Amino acid sequence: MADSLAKALAAEHAAVYAYGVIGAKTAGKLRVRATTSFDAHRARRDQLRMLITQQGAKPAEPSPTYQLPFEVTRPSDAVRLAVLVEQRLVTAYLELAADEDASVRRVAALAAQECATRAYGWQPAVTAFPGMPGQTASPAQPDGTGEATEETTDGTGETSATTETIDPTPIASEPSAPQ
C-alpha cells in the first residue's frame, strides 16, 4: 500500500500549500484557525514521510506550487478552499485505511477523523460520510458559520442569494504551468 501512502503524502503537500494561501487571505480568528490547520498538516506530512522512509521508500518532495481549484481572493474563498482541502484529505485517508499494516490504518483513521473535524470547524453543516466520493458541501461564511451566500442582482433591481457547491475531486498535485 505504498501507493496509498504516497497519495496521502501528496495530498498533505497540497494541503500545506493551500493553507499558506488560506492564511494569506484571512485575518483574526480565521487566520488563527488557518495557522493551526497549517501546523497540523505539516506534522501529518512529516509523519507520512517517516512512514514511507520506514518502509524503505523515498518520500516525494512537494511541488513548488499547486494549481488551486478556484481563485482565492476573499476570506469566503479561503474558507471554501479549507473545507475542500479537508474533505479531499478525508478521501485520501479513507483509501489509506485499507492498508494491511494496523499501525498505518490507525494513522489513516485518526487523520481522516481530524480532517473531517477541521472541515466541520470551517463549515458546521457536514454530510453523513464526509469525504466519500459523490458528496458535496456548501461553503462557509468568512466567520466560519453557516453557508456563504452572495447577493446578486438579476438586472431588475431584485437581489437573490446564491449558494455554491464544492466538487469533491482531489486537488491536482501537478505544479501549475509556468506563466
Automatic annotation (TrEMBL):
UniProt lists compositionally biased (Low complexity) regions at 154-165
| InterPro entries noted in UniProt | DUF4439, Ferritin-like, Ferritin-like_SF
Record region (Disordered): 130-179
Name all DUF4439 domain ranges: 5-133
Q: What is this protein called?
A: DUF4439 domain-containing protein
